[in-house]
Design brief:
Elements (H helix, E strand, L loop, with lengths): L4 E4 L3 H12 L4 E4 L23 E4 L6 H11 L3 H8 L1 E2 L4 E4 L1 H14 L3 E4 L14 E3 L7 H11 L4 E7 L2 E3 L9 E2 L15 E6 L1 H13 L21 H6 L27 E7 L6 E4 L8 H8 L10 E3 L2 E7 L2 H4 L5 E2 L2 E6 L9 H19 L2 E2 L8 H10 L42 H22 L4 E2 L2
Parallel strand pairs: 1-2, 1-7, 2-6, 7-17
Antiparallel strand pairs: 3-5, 4-5, 8-15, 9-13, 9-14, 10-11, 11-12, 12-13, 16-17, 18-19
């Protein structure tokens, strides 16, 4: 009989890793401490619970790197993408999901699989020595006991950053005499029809008053040990963005482009706050880009100054939590194994990727690596020309210095982006006419086409060589 592989952590990465192992014929034990022991951000015991946004970001694969990662994961039989597609909500060109339905689907599939054993328990230190193949996918909210054990094993001080959560509003408390439904440029995306966001318009005076109130509001105080922890640039609290300049938000989450206010024809909004559907019933809506560390009472006061949200009722207010991740380029080998203890693999956000899809993608790769190893095969990594391979390269070697001695430059969490891919020459054929007709978009299309061609070849022969 094939020996079991243990997966610690039932988030996006751990759930995907367990699925990839089981579908490959490898018996798997999935360890999850929730609901017996909750984290600072989780609320349930469901697998793959989404604690921040309900959006998997753009689903357009030809010119968007995260959309390309979606497509690659679909082709690699990802459980996370299957569950997302089955629970998608209208969100313009983005893939957004009903978070409860999504987690319930992942949980149902994992609990029903005959090769997956669920163990509801906390692993309070390094796994027992008899576990000779382990995937640690405990995420940025790893239990303190396990985090200390890993830190002691590696001899490295942990790296950390802050991640923030956006508020969720009850739809029936939004004033639709002021707000309106529309996606930017009326874009139709997965599960949507071109009117997938609620838009709250602000004129110049309202915007300036909102910025002033935001900057003056009372923020959550940091603990002493958190004071030097940086933010992740891709998920800055809205008040931190405002501190960078009065126009910053107008060029970020509050940009008014691609939108027309039907209540005031011919008058362009100076700024817009967008709400994105958060559940299948359409009763809950997420404030897009409004992750925050304001105190709860201040959030209610300040966000109710936004036109259309004067009577807003909040199902959840924003928050802030501290994330930790490994110094992966130094500590992990090319197959995600810990150099100090190769029986341990790591997956997900703890490896230094940022984002739901990226975390699940590393779980997918780790699961495939561990399955091949268990089956006596030598797995080839996904090509560096693919989104999966580009992420793997980033966290296992992309930041190594040229001296070759393991010195690592500043290593920070990274979303998938086209800058992680090897260069490619843009095609010389006539460009597609329209708003995405520039040379930059031609190059993105060329990268995406190459990625999918290389991925299909890899999926046909991912691990066929006998391990030595």
């Amino acid at each position: 009989m094939t020996a079991k592989v243990h997966v610690i952590g039932g988030g996006l990465a751990g759930s995907e890793a367990a699925w990839q192992l089981a579908r490959s014929g490898v018996p798997t034990v999935l360890h999850e401490m929730r609901p017996d022991r909750q984290t600072e951000a989780h609320k349930t015991g469901a697998f793959a619970e989404l604690v921040c946004s309900n959006s998997f970001r753009s689903d357009e694969w030809e010119t968007n790197a995260v959309g390309l990662l979606h497509e690659e994961m679909r082709r690699a039989d990802s459980l996370i993408l299957k569950a997302a597609d089955a629970n998608k909500l209208p969100a313009g060109g983005a893939l957004a999901v009903d978070r409860e339905g999504f987690a319930a689907e992942v949980t149902r599939v994992l609990e029903a699989h005959p090769r997956i054993e669920i163990a509801r328990e906390e692993i309070g230190g390094l796994p027992p020595t008899e576990w000779d193949s382990v995937i640690v996918a405990t995420g940025p909210l790893t239990s303190p006991a396990l985090a200390r054990a890993i830190q002691a094993l590696t001899g490295e001080a942990e790296l950390a950053f802050f991640d923030a959560i956006a508020p969720i509003v009850h739809a029936d408390s939004v004033d639709m005499a002021v707000c309106w439904r529309q996606s930017r440029y009326d874009k139709v995306g997965p599960g949507g029809g071109g009117a997938d966001y609620i838009n709250c318009p602000l004129d110049k005076n309202q915007y300036e008053a909102f910025i002033a109130a935001l900057l003056a509001a009372e923020k959550t105080a940091f603990k002493e040990f958190e004071a030097a922890t940086p933010y992740f640039e891709g998920c800055l609290p809205i008040e931190v963005m405002a501190e960078r300049g009065p126009e910053t938000l107008r060029y970020g989450p509050m940009k008014p482009v691609g939108l027309t206010n039907p209540h005031r024809p011919g008058v362009k909004p100076y700024a817009v706050v967008q709400l994105r559907q958060d559940n299948a019933l359409g009763t809950l809506w997420n404030m897009v880009g409004f992750q925050t560390k304001l105190k709860h009472a201040e959030q209610v006061r300040v966000f109710r100054t936004i036109p259309g949200l004067e009577q807003a009722e909040f199902a959840r207010l924003g928050g802030l939590h501290r994330n930790t991740f490994l110094n992966s380029p130094k500590l992990l080998d090319a197959s995600l194994r810990l150099k100090a203890d190769p029986r341990l693999r790591f997956a997900g956000q703890i490896t230094g990727v940022e984002g739901y899809v990226e975390s699940a993608a590393i779980g997918l790769i780790a699961g495939r690596f561990a399955a091949s190893e268990r089956l006596g095969l030598k797995a080839s990594p996904p090509p560096a020309t693919t989104a999966l391979g580009a992420l793997l390269s980033h966290i296992t070697g992309g930041h190594l210095s040229a001296d070759g001695e393991g010195s690592v430059r500043s290593f920070q969490p990274m979303n998938i982006n086209f800058g992680l891919f090897p260069p490619v020459a843009a095609p010389l054929s006539p460009r597609v006419k329209g708003p995405r007709s520039s040379k930059a978009f031609d190059k993105k299309r060329a990268i995406a086409a190459r990625a999918l061609a290389d991925l299909d070849r890899w999926l046909a022969h991912p691990a066929t060589v006998a391990a030595e």
